[in-house]
Amino acid sequence: MRLHRNLVFAVIDGLNLIFNEGEYADKVVEKLLKRDKRWGSRDRAFVAETTYDIVRWKRLYAEIAEVREPFDRENLWRIFAVWATLKGINLPDWKQLAGTPTRRIKGKFDELSKTRKLKESVPDWLDALGEKELGNAVWTKELHALNQQADVILRTNTLKTTKKDLQHILAESEIKTSFLKAYPDALVLEERTNVFTTDAFQNGLFEVQDASSQKVAAFLEVAPGMRVADTCAGAGGKSLHLAALMQNKGQIIAMDIYENKLKVLKRRAKRNGAHNIETRWIENTKVIKKLHNSLDRVLIDAPCSGLGVLRRNPDAKWKLQPEFLTEIKKTQQQILQDYAKMVKPGGKLVYATCSVLPSENQEQVKTFLTSESGKDFTFVKDEKVLAHKSGFDGFYMALLERKTN
Ligand SMILES: C[S@@+](CC[C@H](N)C(=O)[O-])C[C@H]1O[C@@H](n2cnc3c(N)ncnc32)[C@H](O)[C@@H]1O
């Protein structure tokens, strides 16, 4: 691989925004990719993947480069030099890369890779927490899996097409995909490419959604005609899937405390041809109270640490703080307590997160079931999806049923 100066400069600028200005990696990459219209798909892939790679391995590379935060531009170049050396790239004779100690970098990599928190590049507190919650052996494997680049997975919108037809349509645009056993609507891209610009996407034939995430709506056991609430709907990934599973029949009430997310949801529903979704902004507790005892199904896709989706959000490793985790767990329990009341007797509830920590998952469900509001519910089943076992994002989902008396 030959390094191109303007692409590497874009990466350095991006890293500066992410590491020093606290900007989100996905937003920064989106901005960087708009920088030069002449860049082809390989150039764009270089900028995006190199930026994500260096964010993912920040701690390891910084240790090898012997630099500390806040990183100045010279530090960022040294980190970049570590990335390029470990990739086996022949360094050009640019002044910023002069004197890169190639041999020393390789030696330090071998030495530091003996320590998990350095090898897998995580903060001390997070490494200790993961080991405490999952045990040494499982956490070691899980953390390693969460540091791999995620495949791009599509969910066929069965309101508009079939998986087979979609595969053919994409193949006509030179996008090759394959089926995924055990995931009925999923297609996996054989090569990474920007699918958002395709007509198929613009026409609502698919959504990009990880395979593990595609399990959640199905876990709720919905059927056409039911009255369902998606209580933490966000921009609606699960609401859209629910609409497809319900064949556009019945009612889906998509709710969130952020009105702007629901606006995005509405646009996506239109593109998907999902006509049975209505949005309700949770601006006060009355919105929930009005729906008490009235729904066949309630989905709580709870806000969480996001540790299960580190493969696609590597900067969460650096942004997450122990205090946030403490707070979010309180919110999760409060949401369970309050929103479960919307389930009617005999109805069902799914509590889901994209975390792999038992304290956000099965322990929250256990606390709920032993509480005053939880005693009306029985535990039906749960699924702990770990990235190292599934090959996809880490997720948790539990199905509960409200007793009839
Ligand atoms: C995991 S995300 C949801 C992702 C979404 N369901 C999807 O499939 O695209 C969690 C969502 O919960 C919302 N949220 C946070 N606190 C909430 C609360 N108290 N009540 C309802 N939603 C809340 C957040 O705004 C966020 O959109």
Automatic annotation (TrEMBL):
Keywords: Methyltransferase, RNA-binding, S-adenosyl-L-methionine, Transferase. Gene3D superfamilies: Sun protein, domain 3 (3.30.70.1170), Vaccinia Virus protein VP39 (3.40.50.150). InterPro entries: MeTrfase_RsmB-F_NOP2_cat (IPR049560), MeTrfase_RsmB-F_NOP2_dom (IPR001678), RCMT (IPR023267), RsmB-like_ferredoxin (IPR054728), SAM-dependent_MTases_sf (IPR029063). It comes from the Bacteria. S-adenosyl-L-methionine binds at D256, D301. Residues 142-403 form the SAM-dependent MTase RsmB/NOP-type domain. The active site is at C354. One of its GO terms (biological process) is methylation. The keyword RNA-binding applies. PROSITE patterns: SAM_MT_RSMB_NOP (PS51686). PANTHER family: NOP2 YEAST -RELATED NOL1/NOP2/FMU SUN DOMAIN-CONTAINING, RIBOSOMAL RNA SMALL SUBUNIT METHYLTRANSFERASE B-RELATED. Belongs to the class I-like SAM-binding methyltransferase superfamily. RsmB/NOP family. This is RNA methyltransferase. It comes from Neptunitalea lumnitzerae. The gene is rsmB.
